[in-house]
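A sample follows:
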Amino acid sequence: MEAWYKVATPREEVREGRSFNPDEFAIALEQVVAGTAPEDYRDPAQFFARTYFTRALREHVGMVLRRLSGRTDNTAPVLTLITQFGGGKTHTLTTLYHLVTSGERAASYPGVGDLLRESGLTSVPKARVGVFVGNAWDPQEGRETPWIDLARQLAGHKGVAALGTSARTVPPGTESLARVFQAAEAPVLILFDEVLNFLNRHRGMAEAFHAFIQNLTVAMTGTTHGAAVISLPRSQVEMTDWDMLWQDRITKVVRRVSKDLIVNDETAISEVVRRRLFEHLGNENVRKNVARAFADWCFERRAQLPREWTAVDTVASEAKAKEILRGRFEACYPFHPATLSVFQRKWQALPQYQQTRGTLAMLAQWIAWAYRDGFTTARREPLITLGSAPLHDMGFRSTIFGQLGESRLAAAIEADIAGQHSHARALDADTQGLLRDIHRRVGTAILFESSGGQTDKVAHLPELRFALGEPGIDTTSVDNAAFALEAQSYFIRRMGSDGFKISYQPTLKKVVNDRRASLDEEEEIKPAIRKFVESEFRRGASIPLVLFPRDGAEVPDSPRLTLIVTDPEAEWNGKNAFREQIAEWTKYRGKLPRLYPGALVWCIKKPGRELRERVELWLAWKKVAQELANGTLGGEFDRAERDDIHLKVKDAEEAARNEVWGGYRFVVIADYEENDGLKVFDLGSGYSSNNETLCSRVIDALKSAGELNFSFEAGYLDRKWPPALKEAGAWPLASLRQSFLNGSLTRLPDPDTTLRTKIVEFVERGDFGLAFGQRPDGTYERVWFQERISPDEVAFEPDVFLLTKTKAQSLTSEVSLTASLVLEPQAAPPKDSLKDSLKDSLTDRPDVSIAAKPSMEIAPEVKTKTLRLVGALPPEVWSRFGVKVLPKLQPGSELKLRIDLSVKVSRDLADSLLSELRQTLADLALADTVEIQESDL
């Protein structure tokens, strides 16, 4: 389908983009009579070329012409034209003036022939016309009063003479007026316009004019070839109390013999507009093709569109309904029917709205802009839709406000629809093709559909779909755009399930935005962001956490897997100085190299302000909810908005939580195969879940990548056994443990506990052996294999070894052989020779003497003895002491251990060390039995 601006051609003044205001489309009847009006109104041929004879215009003019022809059937001597401001009253009076003054020549003017046939006339009767325009009339020499002026127009000096000499001060009676009609020697037509304006300006003549109108209506009933037409406004907005009083008095007078005529004809507005604004409409086949394509699109989706456009009563009428719909599209071309019908459906009851001239003024500016923009930007719209209105143009916007009578909508249009930074423009940033500017178009349609004066001041989804839909655009696209725009807007509200309305009163979202702008950075925003992050990471955490460290010294050097959550202000882009900082903190704790860098798991936020924005929005909604609850929030808000406030707070809080999950998506661990020693994982998008925690999400990601396991099997150690140690078959537990902690082997959440448990299991099962105390000959002081051992025997010391199965088997075989040779049974010596043997062994030593006492008494045997170890213990042998000494004490009873440790550290490290010690004691279940004391000495 061709774009409309390539088919239809606007009139020259429209194409040139001249300034349009409603007055330019208003006819000044007095200027037409005086011959000073623009040629389009002054010249009868041009006037009728641009006049479309609507149903109302044909009925009204036909009635007057029949009356002037002497036919009194279905006519009245006096007609009152009643319409709102700009509804076509003066156009009707001008049409009558040109017809009657032209006489038989009028039959050659466009449209007049059809008018005569419909009225049952063969020609236009020639008549004498008197015109009174109240806003232009002032007393002058020779027309001191309105009736003298009219008499002179109808019959010249004879008419004035027929009134009599008293007419200068007294309104004429019915007989005097009858003499004036006779003096005209032709049918008489009197046209009254702007009567109330005259009464307001010449209040001293009001009573006399009222008497004149009363007598004129009576006199006109006595004629068969005369008529009077009086225009009266229907809208009270344009009338003062004085106007309303006198309109009521005049109406009561004329209605005794008059007939009211409603001038404006809503159904014909499209033809009126097309004739006034376009030179020609282009190729008829093109128009038909466009009409058919749109009608077919609408008919296929008639269940989603307003029924008044696509209603089908029976199956048999479907073809007829489709034909009617095509005709309506063709009759409105190049406009979409909704573009023109909205002014009748929604706007006609607006007090300030000018039915004809107001519509023409808006559409003239609209077309002028759209015509130029179409060629400039190569737009493709086949029809002029409601969404194409140039609301960004201040002149056009001013015209809209003038017709709506509501300039307070300026802020709403600027913020939500057409401003440089409007919500619609932001949403349209990525739209293209047929959906280009879809949010702006939807917002514009909402303005037109919800700003009228009818009872239903709502733009419903079916109306928006019909107004903006076209072949290639589905109704769901319109729906999605409407909901998205409403969700962001400050002045567009949801009304019911499918309605939208724009208002000058802000929504609660606008208030929330204002509160958001006033949030304090340090006192409110940053603490709230940290609280959200901390609460989400702490919930269900299964490994130790370190939150928001300021430097590497605050990160403990522990063998247990530790999750470090960086500050929300720190963002990971993979190439900045922050990566270098994480690499340094992973290798060093302060200035000291870390023993367990592989135990650190960093979780870092992605770049962007999303988390900050979500938290700010939550804080703002909370503030507004509190103000509503306290009654301190000013402004008028819908009850639905007030009822939804708690849901909004909850939704905002949930969105902030979800953004913590989505924002903290980068996991960084130590990996010495990488250039900078760091390996990065992207967790992807995430959402808060009751079945998962952030901590488990990180752990699961590391497990999936093969970087973390909760356990391991014997085969894993077989495969990972260092080649340099394969021949010896012994792996020092200190080295084995370090391999699990520095990233050489898989990470374990709690490596010490897991290693002890698994080694005990492996030794008992016979997968590996355990030994300590290596001798020079390659044997060991103690070897365990295929036997139960205590986890306490598993000490991560350099002289404690994990043995391969083969090595353990060979060592245990040698031990068994030696034992069988040395411990072969011998006969026990006789009891009597024990003393002699002891004596012999001791007498060989000169420093020992034994005195025999025949009467020696043997002291009673002591059953228990208490051993106590007291003294200073160097720190470097602490672990060896625990491995080698404490197991020897365990066979006894009531083993008691107390510690008295002290160390001096710098104040910079004190806090972090204190925190780490408390965490370690808690992990060992010693927090209640071991006290940490601090002093400044």
User: Anything to note?
Assistant: The CA atoms of residues 244 and 675 lie 90 Å apart. The radius of gyration is 51 Å. The chain has five domains: 29-264, 270-505, 515-704, 714-819, 897-937.
